[in-house]
Amino acid sequence: MSAPVTGIPLDESAILAEAEATTARIVAAREAIAKIIFGQEQVVERSLVTILSGGHGLLVGVPGLAKTKLVETLSTVLGLSERRIQFTPDLMPSDILGSEVMEQAPDGSRAFRFIKGPVFAQLLMADEINRASPRTQSALLQAMQEHHVTVAGQRHDLPKPFHVLATQNPLEQEGTYPLPEAQLDRFLMQIDVHYPDRASERRILMETTGAEDAEAQAVLNGDEIMTMQRLVRRIPVGASVVEAILDLVRAARPDTAKGKYAPAIAWGPGPRASQSLMLTVRARALVQGRLSPSIDDVKALAEPVLQHRMALTFAARADGITIRDVIADLTATLG
Length: 335
Fold this sequence. Notes:
Helix 11 packs antiparallel against helix 13. The chain has a domain of 99 residues: Magnesium chelatase subunit I, C-Terminal domain (Helicase, Ruva Protein, domain 3). Strands 2-5-8-1-9 form a 5-stranded parallel sheet. Strands 3-4 form a two-stranded antiparallel ribbon. Helix content is 44%, strand content 15%. Keywords: ATP-binding, Nucleotide-binding.
């Protein structure tokens, strides 16, 4: 294992013992999720990595791929309180955050009371987030970044942990409002949900169309999740992995772009992308039962972490170049 780059002494034996115990708990959680969600192992892993890294995820896929079911299952298995918001063009900020109402006491006195909105949950599902107006999207932005909301000048803290898993349909663009770059950057990862393979779809047919459906069972709880999140931040990262992250992120920016697609990049990821990779490679290593991340983790997470933080020039898009092409070219140069 490469030497950690931090100057703080680490009790590696204690971290190792805690990581081994945590890995066993994560394995149990993944097995519980696999009883409900079939054939989406990579999506499940990336969703767990997002939560263990303390971030928010954007699930992108066509309808009918169990995105909603995944979030419901995660909330149950991880022991997190869950709320769902169906985003529509007429959704108002108060429908998400909550509002103040006037109440009259028996003695005739009146006072305002704050009624919490659905954002006050540990795991919030924002369904079809791009269908809400920019005004409503911006209301969610503060909650995602600051973990609190402000209503009538009063601050209200959100529960801990707090995570947003938003869904987005990539096909239907009529009646949608594209997410602003600032809000996209708040999502730790964009998790693409693809069609299941034939064997998984056969299992779906056999196990979900009978008289009884399997039900998710709680394995973890919120306190355990926060303990795991703290462990992720203590996992040592080798100097070679840090350099790979820096090389990758900086090569995806117009002014320092590298590779054959360098002229195609209009704008690229900022330092938050580097931070996201540092956290997610640690979490992926933990999920897979390893104490330290490798360059392979950087390669595996480059696309979900970077793709929503980049844009290509008009000429590049006209030539059929995609962001995935650019990221694949950049990751191929890593050690």
